Amino acid sequence: MAKTVSAPKSSSSRPSAKATPAKGRPAGLFTWIAVGVVVVIVAALAIVKIAGGGTTSSGASGWTATDPTTVAQVTGIPASVYDAVGVSEASAVTAPVVLKGQPALTAKNAAGATVPEILYIGAEYCPYCAAQRWATIAALSRFGTWSGLGNTSSASNDVYANTPTFTFLKSTFTSKYLVFRGVETLGNVYPYATLMTPTKAEYAIINKYDTSNYINMSSSNDGAIPFISMGNQFLVSGASYNPGLLTGLTRSQIASNLSATTSPITKVIITSANEQTAAICKLTHQQPSTVCNSPGVTAAKALMKI
Fold first, then answer.
1. All structural domains of the chain with their residue ranges
2. Average pLDDT over the chain, rounded to whole?
3. Which residue from 256, 267, 212, 200 is spatially nearest to 237, judged by alpha carbons?
4. I want to staple 96 with a disulfide (CB 3.0 to 4.6 A). Which of 1, 156, 234, 244 is the partner?
5. b/e string for 125-156 if b means 16 or more Cβ within 10 A?
6. What is the model's pTM?
């Protein structure tokens, strides 16, 4: 099974209050058997200690803003594209895991209202995170507005090297429906700089939910990134689709093709975005209705049985 840059671990492979998660999990075993790639690159562990939570270091010095055209292409995908694709690539995409009976994860939005919180934990070096951000950014854009997205790519010394993507390091997501918290723990140039540190509460969520107790994966993959908790009601651990699909493409090429419903890459990104949208709609009580009642999202709801 392919992994991102790995590292020595304590007796528990899940992240503790002293170490940032530093591995990735494939979307599904079938994907990687088909690809036939099994690579493990071992590097020294970058220890990250909690320092008040959400702190940012000088590792952000290489940050560059994503150009407005690319942002518009990723966040402004036409509704007709979401509906035309639906969940047509469900066999190649892993949908969020549905939880039951768990306490809700909430936060205050800008207006002071208590709304669902979506927590993302990842790292810039991680190719699985690189792939996942495309679909997650697209899905969230249906509920609010992005600003401050930056350009990055996965590490050059890892599997699926230099996968083009974005970073949440300086991003802001504004929505009346939910709060998004994106934590990019490490940079993408080895030795990886510490960028952001999860809070103690966020580590508790990772330690509880990013495990084989809740996700159908080997316990050796506990603590995999990317990890997303959607209000503690839905979980994503690892990429939803094969990062290898993006190999050799530029950020601009991927973004400019997101309205092409026949593109294999667009199909997996949109399928994943529709599935994440369906999960978020459950949290927002099916608001906005124009999104949550759309054919593409309705198809995802039926697939996920929510």
1. 29-304
2. 85
3. 212
4. 234
5. bbbbbbbbbbbbbbbbbbbbebeebbbbbbbe
6. 0.84
